[in-house]
Amino acid sequence: MSKKAQNTTARRSERFPSKEDMTSAGLNCVNFNLRRASRAVTQFYDRELEQAGLTSQRFSLLHTLGASDGLELSVLADLLVMDRTTLLRNLSPLEELGYVSDIPSDTKRARKVALTDKGLEALRIAYPIWEKAQDAVISAMGEDDLKRLLKRLNSIVRKRNFKEFSKENPS
Predict the structure, then answer these.
(1) Position 12 in a domain
(2) Where is the composition biased (Basic and acidic residues) (predicted)?
(3) Structural domain for 61, as ranges
(4) Of the candidates 83, 43, 80, 48, the residue with the CA atom closest to the CA atom of residue 65
(5) Which DSSP category does 68 fall into?
């Protein structure tokens, strides 16, 4: 093989990883595996919460708001690690159902939302269904593994800038 052909082949292999490289990347990619696991868990909770007329995303919004007296959108978006546009798109159906409404904000410029009585009722119906689903997940995972997983996931959320991410004690 000529020197030019070898250089072309070398450049091409740099640009186009092998199938083995791609398989290894997929198996070891944090993003790929977290998203895949997230979809599996979301699908499970969605199936369970369907009997209450909610998705897992809507339930998450309702219970986050239910744990407060209302939240400004910027605070809610930060808690859920969601951009404002996505948050508004997810809040819209809950507003249409009458589960969430605007309330006065301490700062006149910020929009603040809270659960309505209808939203609290939806949460009251959905909560036991969620508890049953949660118990099934805990039973399948084991309580110790779940605690370790939640600790690591919360650590990731707190340290969103991975340039500063450092391994904590895996206790």
Answers:
(1) yes
(2) 11-20
(3) 3-158
(4) 80
(5) S
